[in-house]
Amino acid sequence: MAHFGPRHWWPAETPFEVIIGAILTQNTAWSNVEKAIDRLKKAQALTPDGLRRLPSAEFLEAIRPSGYYNIKAARVKAFLDMLSTRYGNDLERFLSLPTHTLREELLAVPGIGPETADSILLYAAGRPVFVIDAYTVRIMARHGYLAEGTTYGEAQGFFMRHLPRDVPLFNEYHALLVAVGKQYCRPAPRCRGCPLESL
DNA sequence: GACCAGGCACATC
DNA sequence: GATGTGCATGGT
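Predict the joint structure of the above. Result:
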């Protein structure tokens, strides 16, 4: 598997950028999210204050390429509102909460579900939380390690039981699963030559 | 033109 | 508790 190498899989310069990307990438190809992130960067709107200053019409236009833009705008706003009302707009303080508390607070934001919350925990807050996504479940199910239809929590529990709690490992492991999934583990009808079959 | 992409909330049974 | 649906753009 050396072929895949380190992924540097979540390309973001700041924790805030991770958070915005995590929301924008919901059920969306990252290439679409990149366009949105670039536009926000140009508008200097990739900080809590910068984003608040951006008129909502311009924000909508900026994130349009990432799809579901009306819903995602509401989700980003919901996060900013929570950060403002509950943490005085202090992102650093928010991200310093104990892992369990931080996860609960994220999940309480409408539009932030388990995968988005865990992505923020791992990639923005640096907590050893294993992120589950569609590829992960598909790969594990197809190779018989998990049942089809396994819940998020069950899949996460599987990895957390079998791997040491190590942030760089979780980062790389998830990235590799996505890399393999993208290339080989397509939805059932288009599943093709998986290199793991021989293992 | 169909299919898919680094989900989530909500309605309905 | 399980299943179905809306949300939307852009690449293959």
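The mean pLDDT of chain A is 91.
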